[in-house]
Amino acid sequence: MITLYSFPSSRSLRVAWTLEELGLEYACQHVDLAAGQGRAAEHLARHPDGKVPAIQEDDLTLFESGAICRYLAERHGEPGHLLPAAAAERALVDQWLFFVVGELEQPLWTQGKHKFALPRDKRVPAVLPTAAWEFQRALSVLQSRLAERDWLVGSHFTLADLMVAHTLSWAVMFKHRLPDDLEAYRQRCQARPALARAVERERQAAESSRA
Known about the structure:
This protein has helices spanning 12-22, 41-44, 65-76, 87-117, 128-146, 159-173, 180-190, 193-210; strands spanning 2-6, 26-30, 54-57, 60-63. It folds into 2 domains: 2-80 and 194-210, Glutaredoxin (3-Layer(aba) Sandwich); 87-156 and 158-191, Up-down Bundle (Glutathione S-transferase Yfyf (Class Pi), Chain A, domain 2).
């Protein structure tokens, strides 16, 4: 049995979404980061930085959302589902996964950290214009890739689209207005039933932990 350690509206949703796309059975355990549960010794043994997501499956403990999602798709997915069957196309998926973490999410989360996430005395407002500029550059790269295609790799939704769409949804939460074509792409991804199930699963886990 796979156990996902999660917190709603965080990167753990990427993992829950992947699990639902794959149709896997899993336990979803809420980690109340706001109450300090991430710093408990038990959780630090799973994630040394006290964050989510983390998963446990048999003897494997894994953190970092990109690594977890890639592992799940490789280990449990049918060839050609979230990961293409051809090696070259799998490499393209990996390319976009690295792009998400290094180019798209990084300047977006820099803005979030220096607006609300970091302690006030650690925030540096002067970095915000540069981070916003970097994020717009990354959006331009996505626009050029999606100009004449519906999905990032091949002819159907893959793990690359899942990771990008989740990050674009963060951008919308952070009050960024996406270009119309990227917003339409985001909504295509968001309309997938597996995402709705993942959101509900994390919500139920959070509610159960408070019962």
